[in-house]
TrEMBL record, chain A:
Keywords, in A-Z order: Cell membrane, Membrane, Protein transport, Transmembrane, Transmembrane helix, Transport
Taxonomic placement: Bacteria, Pseudomonadati, Bacteroidota, Saprospiria, Saprospirales
GO terms for biological process, alphabetical: protein transport
Pfam families: ExbD
A Gene Ontology term for the protein's cellular component: plasma membrane
Keyword Transmembrane helix in annotation: yes
Protein name (Swiss-Prot/TrEMBL): Biopolymer transport protein ExbD
Record membrane topology: Single-pass membrane protein; Single-pass type II membrane protein
Keyword Cell membrane annotated: yes
Stated family: Belongs to the ExbD/TolR family.
Localization of this protein: Cell membrane
Positions of transmembrane segments: 20-37
Chief subcellular location: membrane
Entry's Gene Ontology molecular function annotations: transmembrane transporter activity
Automatic annotation (TrEMBL), chain B:
Similarity-based family: Belongs to the ExbD/TolR family.
Protein name as it appears in the record: Biopolymer transport protein ExbD
Subcellular location: Cell membrane
InterPro entries tied to this protein: ExbD
Record's keyword annotation contains Metal-binding: no
Protein topology in the membrane: Single-pass membrane protein; Single-pass type II membrane protein
Lineage: Bacteria, Pseudomonadati, Bacteroidota, Saprospiria, Saprospirales
Pfam families: ExbD
Cellular component terms (Gene Ontology): plasma membrane
Domain of life: Bacteria
Amino acid sequence: MAKFTKKRGKSKPAISTASLPDIIFMLLFFFMMVTVLRDSDLKLQVNTPEATELTKLEEKSLVNYIYVGKPTKQYQQVYGTSPRIQLGDKISTVEDIPLFLEQHKVKLPEAKRSRITSSLRVDGEVTMGIVQDVKTKLRKSNQLKVNYSAGKRSEELN
Amino acid sequence: MAKTSTRDRMSNEINAGSMADIAFLLLIFFLVTTTIAEDKGILVKLPPWSDEEPDITKLKERNVYSVLVNAQNQLLVREEPMRLANLRESTKEFIMNPNNMPNMAESPQNAIISLKNDRGTNYQTYLAVYNELKGAYQELWDDLANKRYGEPYTDDMEFAKRKSIREEIPFVISEAEPTSFGDEQ
């Protein structure tokens, strides 16, 4: 080590750090693009099933999310262990769905309202009963575009 | 090194040149590990609500492809048990009816899929079944699009072409009110 410093003497190689901010900005921009801001934190365990025939959802502002699943550990004491529905950031019942849809609808311009999609994020383990109730409510509220949220399946069916 | 006095060391600046490398390392690490959260799923158009049940008894039996899923997540297709893996092929055969069988759809326009599940059916199974049915149609559209226009059926296709294909093989699925034999969670 001592030898090494001696050889170079006092001439310090000045490496320009001017590009550092650029790099940090790059990082920042990357994460700003990628990160999906979740405005509501999940109180339910939702592991969506996998499928192959997927459609990508365009225009996030036209999508409202309905979560169905069992409450997570910390909420189990309050809400029990049977599957519940979460609208926005609170656990609700099917009866609250029309109001929830209406609240989302009024924020949008009239021309776009026909393109509103409901994204159903349902846990794979949930039975169809509660999902059926949600579907019936959506049909009664005339919200017919529905997207069953699912991940991409890669392996073959058995 | 031993000879450098404390004062010398004080004036030494920390070399910030390697910071860039560290930042890059971080960047690459996150690039590799992040899965870009995409909102994907099976798009479904629900039928408008009406108080009376649609009457499918008026339809000819040969045109109706009934798929039942029970609370044990078992499949009953046209009165016969079936494995999920065979559903897609079997549905395709029913719709197109290549051998003009008397018990299959008269034409793709007449074919109707009737899906019925129990309130105790797992959502996962339900979605898998729906996925297979939709997949069968998707494959048929693909075949037709390839034959007619030499391109696969995608959303980027011209609207007129897509429309003509969908008129040739319309996706008609009727979901009956589910039974409630099984246990719900």
